[in-house]
Amino acid sequence: MSGSGAAGGGPGGGVGGVVGERAGLVAGGNGGAISGLYITDIPRELLARVPAEQRGPGLGRDSVRLLVSPGGAQPSLHAFRELPQLLRAGDVLVVNTSATLAAAVDARLGGEDVVVHFSTRGDDGRWAVELRAPAGRGTTRPRPGGPAGAVVELPGGRRLVLEEPLAAGADRLWWARPRWSRPSPAPYGVPELLREHGRPIRYAYTERDQPLSAYQTVFAVPSADGSGSAEMPSAGRPFTAELVARLVSRGVQFAPLTLHTGVASQEAHEPPYPERYAVPATTAALVNAARAGGGRVIAVGTTAVRALESAADERGVVRAAGGWTDLVVTPERGVRAVDGLLTGLHEPEASHLLMLEAVAGRAAVRLGYAQALARLCLWHEFGDVHLLLKDDNRHGSHC
């Protein structure tokens, strides 16, 4: 998953309204542990199982909590609805407009039931896919990929032919070519298959299936060719139209870009693989103007960081760009165009944690995650969110 995040305070910005998943927990007694930089285990009670708006009456998407980690300062906890008071006129929020696909489809491989996760659309008509084994109650578990030449039977008499692993030496993700044997009166490809037979990818920590609308952000714009993200760019989920209007009235600007993210790699802990992105000229101009005028550029999600940094030169000047990016943002590389990152809470071994270090520094990340555990923040795409801001006094230090 691209993000994480949970239930929070009510109107007025309080953070004491603990409901649902946080009820009954006691800080320090929830089983988690901090070892070195990050937690070593996420207590089950801190896994967000349903969207925030389903946790109690009167709650909305923005009823989550916001952990703020300013580089070089102690973290603080707020209601997400307080975000307009935490930003300044002239700041720019860079948002990912990729729409979430109904990317999970039931299928058969030989005599075995499988679930196909459609991850990434290639330029040659193939799709990168992950095969999963059904685990009951709508969830799945890992299974080996392949073999080459295997034919996956899809609904409606359609097929996928597995061709080769996406990366040498790994077999979780495979390039697969659709083979449609049944004629259709209208053009029919994978996007049409997903709309007709797909459902959102769901992980075992969630309580029940959710409609696709629960996985769309307020910024999502469907692509004309049916491309999208296999999993929600979840850092944008807590935003509502009302909150966006409040931010705009405060003088905060929004700069859209697109990065179609593939399936998460939480089992394999793989580094990010290439993804398709587009940074329009208007966004480049907004970001460059903000930086020149002293405003902060805050990426909403790790996907927005990856896309924007792929379009920035060594001085941090952003240009219109697009195509495929294989950029991995690390503390050694650093960030050039981004001053802050709004993201969810990530798995202990997620490669995205290196990006958080690159933005705010190791000390800020360590303090933030210790605070998230102590204050019972919720993890994953329906959970709480974390705002990390660059420490202007670090001067390139990553520790």
From TrEMBL:
Pfam families from the entry? Queuosine_synth
Q: Which SUPFAM superfamilies match?
A: QueA-like
InterPro entries recorded: QueA, QueA_dom1, QueA_sf
Q: Which Gene3D superfamilies match?
A: QueA-like (3.40.1780.10)
Top-level taxon in the UniProt lineage: Bacteria
Q: Which residues form a coiled coil?
A: none
Entry keyword set:
Cytoplasm, Queuosine biosynthesis, S-adenosyl-L-methionine, Transferase
What name appears for this protein in its UniProt entry?
A: S-adenosylmethionine:tRNA ribosyltransferase-isomerase
What does UniProt list as this organism's lineage? Bacteria, Bacillati, Actinomycetota, Actinomycetes, Kitasatosporales
